[in-house]
Amino acid sequence: MQHEIEVAGIEDPYRNAQEKGWKIVNASMLDDDLVLEADVVVVGTGSGGGTAAEVLSEAGLRVVMLEEGMLKSSDRFNMAEGEAITDLYRDAGLQSTKGEGIYVFQGQNVGGGTTINWCASFRTPTQTLRHWEQNFGLKGCGEDDLAPCFEIAEKQLNIMKWPAPPNKNNEILKRGAEKLGFSWGVIPRNVDGCWDLGYCGQGCPVDAKKSMLVTTIPSALQQGAKLVYRVAVNALLREGDRVTGVEGFAYSQDDRQRTGKKVTVSAKHVVLAAGAIHTPGILLRSDAPDPYKRIGKRTFLHPVINSYAQFKEQIDPYYGAPQSIYSDHFTWPEDDETQIGYKLEVLPLLPGTYATLQGGHGAVLHESMTKLPNTHVLMALMRDGFHEGSPGGSVELSENGRAVLDYPLTSYLTDGMKHAFETMTEIQFAAGAVATRIGHRDSAWHNSLSEAKEAIGRLPIELGKASISSAHVMGGCAMGEDETQCVTDSEGRFRHLENLSIFDGSLFPTSLGANPQLSIFGVSRKFATKLAETL
Amino acid sequence: MISNELPNGTTEQDRLSRRDFLGTVGKTSVLATATLYSASSLAVLTSTRSGWAAEPQFLILRDADIKLFGALLPAVVQQANPKVDSQKFLQSLDSILAHADAETAQLIQQLVDLVTGALTRGAMTGSLFWDWPDFDVQTVNSILESWRESYFELPKTVYAVVTRLTATAWYMVPENQQITGYKGPPKKIVD
Question: How many residue pairs from chains A and B have C-beta atoms closer than 8 A?
Fold first, then answer.
């Protein structure tokens, strides 16, 4: 049995950090305000910040990395779902768009999303790059321009198609797609020596996942970069139109209390890589010039909907590599006008995740939960932002200055969601499901495709009723040459202030149509390399 | 530059504005308030810092939270096994709220105040004289159903927030996860 496996013999790279001379500061322990100087300060340590920190340190620049979350590494990754959600996810997994809308899961830890994602590593789709070039005037980011950066990341992070058999959860997607004649493929993953356990979302306990936590960040530290964690950057420091650094607040170690200590870093250049909600948030709090009012606008989520299915066979949807099979059969429909595209994947379904995604109470919840080992789950990621019917959301500041996302649904999106619910249900019944239920508060379990389809037609897709979530936040600081739409140029430099770059998912002018980490590695490496040449 | 300071503790002024808010709700009615304010704008009505722990073992949970979530638990998770360990559940809930953004925890505790407060509880539960610990599972279930099917936004939001939080906190506890048939993770040995 899976649970009888013992995980041992792993050497956590942070275990001897001090002997290695790594400069790591836990801001929660500061007795006084901390004032630092650097060539470059990088805000955020996820796929964008982690990559940039390595590239800039290798170029001989003095780099300070700032991270709001905790530093946890493999010695403390015990695969417990509850501990992971409170320690590694923003807002303890409770972050949602305005009005209990869409649940938005973002990493908040040293390593960011890469510490807790499910390893899918796709290059940016060609269609997406072409769309950005044609509609936003993006230059120098064609397929051939980015290929060398993707190759470096693929080599460094050992990205390759998953060579082992898929787990049951993924195998069912493949089985159903094959029965219905839908195309499918094997997901490339950034792992080396993977134990196939299934706990990518809780922090890899065996350091097989080549996250920023165990690759670029140690490499930057080895080059002399400094890491300060448990500090939330509030705003940019400025002298007129020149950015001169950042200032932030230290947080206590075990909860979200401010300690009262301040962290200030003055630097020749600032890189914002805090993710597509908080990078725009920092810009808005800093009152950054924005003549066309584009900061935080057109924020995209790949909104995700789920379909659950019960099978006679045991699925154990929590064990084994979480994502190894995908289908792009519906990602790029011929006619975007009538149909939004969506990508199909599965997700690892641990008990807490299942309860969170389902919502509701009483008998229905209980019945679903007690059949978990025989439950399969599919998800559809809506490719938002490519059509006027999906303009995305906008990042705003609350009265307290917190960045929040407002993301209204449109009929173009909800029509697409109905289509995706039907497709997922078809796949599950084709693969042998005995009952299916869509992720919707008012959905029952249905024993036949016709019954399930009738219910899908009837149930309204509204926030608060349909369970919609996201793990991919993109946009809000679009890159490109069209300055009426793009606050950053084609190299990630912020247009309206000097000495400021943005290297994270907020650069993307639309969503991607694929899981974002490799796209972010690629552009961050390209832009950081260029930046290093100029400093 | 805009200041983003959040108060570290609850000041007297905070307490006053909190009372004013609840007073206003009491004078008009909860349902009228529901049409005026969405859940997210509730947070800006007061600047109360979430949480002053009721018990030393909790970081955030107050008496009102313990009272409400303790009463909701059996109705939400419909535990076949009557031996519900509410202490572990409350610890899990406390940990989630303590690690959440201050504003999130604050919003949730304002909703808790709304359905437990002396002035507003009656309108939210339909019971003027009884309090949450007095309700049996059937009554709690009826209250949840009425929120869920309400015409107004606020009760619907309360329903979504408190049920999801209860179910999540419960099913994040390793012992409770076994109820689902999940055998748990492999054993981790750090040597």
Answer: 207
In chain A the domains, ranked by start, together with CATH numbers, are 14-90+106-119+122-156+204-294+476-534 (3.50.50.60), 168-189+304-383+410-467 (3.30.410)
Nearest to A98 by CA among B183, B186, B170, B43: B43
CB A405 within 8 A of CB A98: yes
Half-sphere exposure of B53 (CA within 13 A, CB side): 14
Q: Report whether A308 contacts A423 (CB < 8 A).
A: no
- Residues on chain B touching A8 (C-beta within 8 angstroms): 188-191
| Residue range A516-528, pLDDT digits in tens | 999 999 999 999 9
Dihedral of alpha carbons A155, A270, A407, B110, sign? positive
A392: tokens are 């995305």
pLDDT tens digits for A39-88?
A: 999 999 999 999 999 999 999 999 999 999 999 999 999 999 999 999 99
Average pLDDT over residues A220-226: 98
Closest approach of chain B CAs to the CA of A287, in angstroms? Answer: 6
pLDDT in tens, A343-396: 999 999 999 999 999 888 999 899 999 999 999 999 999 999 999 999 999 999
Burial call A301-316: b when 16+ CB within 10 Å, e when fewer:
bbbbbbbbbbbeeebb
Q: Tell me the chain A residues in contact with residue B41 when contact means C-beta distances shorter than 8 Å.
A: none
Q: Chain B: residue nearest A349 by CA?
A: B182
Interchain proximity A85–B141, CB inside 8 Å: no
**Other CB atoms within 10 A of residue A335 CB:** 6
Chain B residue with minimal CA distance to A195?
A: B186
For A59, phi and psi rounded to 5 degrees? Answer: -80, 0
Is residue B157 within 8 angstroms of chain A, CB to CB? yes
Strand A474-476 and strand A297-300: pairing?
antiparallel
Question: Is A503 in a helix, a strand, or coil?
Answer: coil
Question: Whole-angstrom Cα distance, residue A202 to residue A219?
Answer: 23
CA-nearest residue of chain A to B142?
A362
Element housing A304 (H / E): strand A304-310
Contact list, A104 vs chain B (CB under 8 Å): none
A283 and A272 Cβ atoms separated by less than 8 Å: yes
Inter-chain touch A82–B98, beta carbons under 8 Å: no
Q: Quick check: B35 contacting A, CB < 8 Å?
A: no
Residues of chain A with C-beta less than 8 angstroms from the C-beta of B68:
none
Contact of B64 with B132, CB cutoff 8 Å: no
Residue B133: Cβ within 10 Å count: 10
**Length in residues, chain B:** 191
State how far residue B81 is from chain A, nearest Cα, in angstroms.
12
